[in-house]
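Service request form, structural biology core

Requester: graduate student, group of Dr. S.
Request type: structure prediction, single chain
Budget code: on file
Notes: please return the result as structure tokens.

Sequence provided:
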Amino acid sequence: MSETPDIEVTETELPFSTEDPYVTEEPTYADGPEGEIDKAAAEKGWEGDVYDPPSALVAAVCKDLVNGPEEHGQSPAQWLVEGMNMEGDEKHILLLGIPKLCPEYSGAVKAAASGKYERWYGDGTYVVTSKKADEGQTIPPGTYRAEGRMENCYWERTSESGDIIDNAFATSARKITVTISSSDGQFTSEGCATWKPVK
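Core staff response, request fulfilled:
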């Protein structure tokens, strides 16, 4: 009877992977509201345009909402619509995330998403119109007030042909109220504070 020699078994590297390509690890998310935002966005398939993860987009917008709208002479909702991308996935991410990370702006993001929001007006010449205008320098008729420290503030209401209906130049003012009529053609403001609708 012959003896079988001992065979030494050594590990060799195979030319192919033995891992199952269909096995995926469950993603993990941070604890807290950021993780909730990222998990919900992943489940819905929402992707931010520039920011990854989606909670980073919400955090950046929340930070910018503190001063951004006021610096641009816009209401918070107006700033979201005109300064941010309030369409597609980003709109959904912001609607979900802003109430979690900066709840004081929940109303603003809802108003921005609905398209029904208060507009504020800075320097410039605006065409007076009651019709909703998506773009351009337009202002609806109504009463507006500018408040704050104003030096060398000039405003004027003109007819459609450019004739001055009413105007004023204030070298020092704290509050100015102007009523724009539906028959006005344009409203111009230079060096004044932000004009906000009087409620």
